[in-house]
Amino acid sequence: QLVESGGGVVQAGGSLRLTCAGSGRPLRYYAVGWFRQSPGQERKVVAIISWSGEKTDVADSVKGRFAISRDNTENKVFLQMSSLTPGDTAVYSCGAGTIPYFEPQYYYDMNYWGNGTLVTVSS
User: Which of 16, 70, 79, 84: disulfide with 34, CB 3.0–4.6 Å?
Assistant: First the structure.
């Protein structure tokens, strides 16, 4: 399925790069999104990238700080996070889906999910 890595503990202002790897599943056919969920809150999309990498969308809350990219030859999608704040603390998961249109109403229609990786930002 999907395997996330790169989470950990970082101080506020620091950076992390998360990786989503397709384990036995080629990601190049799918749009892939990064989502995060904090305790007591709903899972929210952070960033998403089309199957070709030509289209990306980033949530307003992280725009200018987070960037999503993909390398289909490596079967991986990355989330580069910088200027992290304690508010970014969450479990980050990746999802892959064959969404019909690259529009927000479809961003949660993922066919496959990873188990997530914890990002903790200390103040």
Answer: 79
How does pLDDT run across 11-60, given as a tens digit for each residue? 999 999 999 999 888 999 999 999 999 989 999 999 999 999 999 999 99
CA distance 65 to 37: 18
3-state SS string for the chain: CEEEECCEEEECCCCEEEEEEECCCCHHHCEEEEEEECCCCCCEEEEEECCCCCCEEECCCCECCEEEEEECCCCEEEEEECCCCHHHCEEEEEEEECCCCCCHHHCCCCCEEECCEEEEEEC
Across the chain, what does the average pLDDT equal? 96
> Parallel, antiparallel, or unpaired for β 8-11 and 117-122?
parallel
